[in-house]
Write a structure and sequence with these properties.
By secondary structure, the protein is mostly helical. The protein is built from 17 helices and no strands. The longest helix has about 60 residues.
């Protein structure tokens, strides 16, 4: 018969075991906890650097067209090449992050991207500029999927949508500040000095990111074997919910990419005839995206994922229609609504991907990012082509078509969810 001391010891041991297990679960970051603010700010800065670099030429396209003597559709390739490079390389980069770690890959990606960013101002031709931008986009591919995978591993599930929303908010701030800064700098000193300025800002963000981001505690190295990667990708693509989320991300970004690639051309023409600095300042509406992305968690809690996507689609549609009016205040209001709808939809879709994927999260996020930036490349190119063929109304028509796709896919998802619910709650997404 065990003694009282032995029983007490056993009880203490069991209690210690439970406490240790709880501590292990609780070691993930949570709002208000140690390291959460550093992590949030570090990834916020990574988002700033990523979007500032990725879209550094977008607000400058009229100046690029003039400098190299090319059309709007040709100049738009300086944006499409960067987003296309990211789309092509995000999946291989996600595999490297599974093997070598999220923080390591994000650091290396930023280092290469900012180095190329310092070379971009010296491009001697439109072909060289497009090539450099493609390399820059490929380097930046290591950021988006690795960041969302890092958050999925290091942040408690209840705080995940909020954490990803903050990262997306960093994207919006980067996109906004990059365009505003380049607009005013270019007005005084030209587009080359403008993109050089963005390169220097991105260097500062990259250094601060590496110093602030906490070392991962829940990362487990994966395999680089092609068969393992192919099986993981195949499993993700076989998931109908993930396929719908990938398509929604691509379609939302097609709207956004098309609108913001072409808006500079529209505002330089009559009846607006705005100078480059003012056109750059138009991108201050990105602040709306910062708010809508960071509040996506509360939106989903109130309306659900599909309800939030319907709201995002409706807001984007209203913005597109308002932007057709030849009135600067209404065009600005339209851009505000388009931006709010896009960032809300993107934050909801991207966080849903991380929540849905139980294994191979980096690959799941990479597939989303790939679809997302394919949508951006398509939107930039097709938006410019549509503008050339039918003016701003052509670009708006392309955007409305894409939003219709978002609504249709979401409706199909609602129908699938109801069907699965009738078959059994365990099968419902």
């Amino acid at each position: 018969m065990p003694s009282a001391s032995t029983g007490a010891s056993t009880t203490v041991g069991a209690t210690s075991s439970v406490t240790s297990s709880t501590a292990a679960v609780d070691s993930r970051l949570t709002p208000g906890g140690p390291g959460y603010r550093r992590m949030s700010f570090a990834l916020f800065l990574a988002g700033v650097a990523t979007f500032a670099l990725l879209y550094s030429t977008q607000a400058l396209l009229p100046l690029v067209s003039t400098d190299f003597g090319v059309s709007a559709s040709e100049a738009s390739w300086t944006v499409s090449a960067a987003t296309g490079g990211l789309a092509l390389f995000v999946l291989p980069m996600s595999a490297l992050s599974e093997r070598f770690g999220r923080r390591t890959l994000m650091t290396a990606s930023l280092a290469v991207a900012v180095t190329v960013g310092l070379l971009v101002p010296f491009a001697p031709s439109i072909g060289a500029l497009v090539a450099l931008r493609a390399v820059q986009g490929a380097a930046l591919a290591g950021l988006p999927a690795s960041a969302t995978a890092y958050l999925a591993e290091e942040v408690r599930p209840k705080a995940l949508i909020t954490a990803i929303g903050l990262f997306v908010a960093g994207n919006s701030v980067g996109g906004m500040s990059g365009r505003v800064i380049t607009g005013w700098v270019a007005q005084e000193w030209g587009w080359r000095v403008a993109v050089a300025t963005i390169g220097i800002i991105a260097v500062a963000c990259a250094v601060a990111f590496r110093m602030l981001l906490p070392a991962p505690k829940h990362f487990t190295p994966g395999s680089l074997r092609p068969r393992v990667l192919a099986r993981t990708v195949r499993d993700h693509l076989a998931n109908p919910l993930l396929r719908r989320l990938y398509a929604i991300g691509a379609l939302f970004m097609m709207v956004f990419g098309g609108v913001y690639t072409v808006i500079g051309y529209r505002l330089t023409e009559a009846p607006f005839s705005l100078p480059q600095g003012i056109i750059g300042s138009i991108f201050l509406v990105y602040l709306v995206g910062t708010v809508s992305a960071s509040t996506a968690g509360r939106l989903v809690a109130r309306l659900g994922r599909r309800g939030s996507l319907y709201l995002a689609g409706g807001t984007t549609t209203a913005g597109l229609l308002l932007s057709l009016v030849d009135s600067l205040p209404l065009v600005l209001l339209g851009l505000v609504l388009i931006t709010a709808g896009f960032f809300a939809g993107h934050a909801v879709a991207s966080s849903s991907v991380s929540h849905t994927a139980k294994q191979g999260r980096a690959q799941a996020s990479a597939l989303y990012q790939s679809a997302y930036y394919i949508g951006s490349s398509a939107g930039s190119t097709l938006g410019a082509v549509a503008f050339h063929a039918g003016g701003w109304a052509g670009t708006v028509a392309l955007g409305l078509f894409a939003v219709l796709g978002v609504v249709t896919i979401t409706l199909l998802g609602s129908h699938a969810a109801r069907t699965q619910a009738r078959r059994g709650p365990a099968l419902a997404h």
